[in-house]
Amino acid sequence: MTADETRVALVTGGNSGIGLATAQLLNERGYAVAICGRDAGRLETAVNETGAKLAVQADVSDRDAAYAAVEEVVGTLGRLDALVNAHGILGAPTPLADLTPEQWHTMLNINLLGPIWTTTAATAELSKTQGAVVNVASINAIQAEQQMAPYGVSKAGLVGFTKYAAADLAPMGIRVNAVLPGWVHTPMAAPHFEEAGVTDGRMSTNYMGRAASPRELAQVIAFLLSKEASFVTGAEIVADGGHWIKMQDLAPLTD
Asked: Which domain of life is it from (predicted)?
């Protein structure tokens, strides 16, 4: 593959967690990687850690910023073959009745509208390369957890968007899929692992008995972007160590 044909990937949230691990892996596999995030300091550090060719400081929950970010990537690196929407926030556990409009707006803007804006911004360029999109959702998209309504709703919406985008963009040769992680050792999830006495209990809810590493999720994402997944679109790939099936197994039986 010549320099002009080098595949280009944009990873939002590429300065931390799953996004950072994905940027690292794609760089290792020959992509020219652009990372996008809101924190300039973390972006600078992440460039060194990932080998990214470009860092774009942007809040993609703002539509204009998302379109400008994609334009900068294409203008600098020449094309776009892959988009990974790995940015997101978790939020503090809050009872439903206590949630404020601001909490709902913030969560939905970042976790749902952000990927919508980046995907629509990237569509024209991805159609030129028969590219692919991977959205990082969550197991909470399909399994409710108490006091996590905004997060779960935003991720369920992202899975829904993935399916509709896959349907609309397939005629253009663009594939769109979602990954639904369970517990992953990331900076965003770290406070939950640090809660005294709860880590072992949380890990016991999946058959693997542990949390994933960001690299393990990055490998799933890289597969979905690859030609090996050329017939996969509109899929929701659960990568949760067996959490979902174990929760079904533990469901109480009723008469």
From this structure: Bacteria
CATH number of 8-239: 3.40.50.720
Amino acid found at 39: D
253 token code pair: 């039986």
Q: What are the mean pLDDT values of the chain's consecutive 10-residue runs (255 residues total)?
A: 76 97 98 98 96 98 99 99 98 96 98 99 99 98 94 98 99 98 74 53 70 94 98 95 67 55
Nearest one of 31, 32, 36, 58 to 46, comparing CA atoms: 36
**Do residues 118 and 59 make contact, with C-beta atoms less than 8 angstroms apart?**
no
Which of 24, 168, 149 shows the shortest CA–CA distance to 84?
24
- Give the active site residue among 31, 67, 151, 164: 151
DSSP letter assigned to residue 212:
B
The sheet with strand 132-136 has its strands ordered as 54-57, 32-37, 8-12, 82-85, 132-136, 175-181, 236-239
Taking a C-beta distance cutoff of 8 angstroms, is the pair 185, 212 a contact?
yes
Distance in angstroms (rounded) separating the CA atoms of residues 25 and 218: 7
Q: How many CB atoms lie within 10 A of CB 63?
A: 15
Angle, helices 149-169 vs 101-108, to 10°: value is 30
3-state secondary structure of 135: strand
Picking from 135, 133, 11, the residue whose alpha carbon sits closest to that of residue 69 is: 11
Instruction: Provide the pLDDT for residue 57.
Output: 98
Q: What pLDDT is recorded for position 196? A: 47
Residues 152 and 138: beta-carbon distance below 8 Å: yes
Say what the pLDDT of residue 191 is. Answer: 60
Report how far residue 80's alpha carbon sits from residue 32's, in angstroms, rounded to the nearest whole number.
9
| Res 210: pLDDT | 84
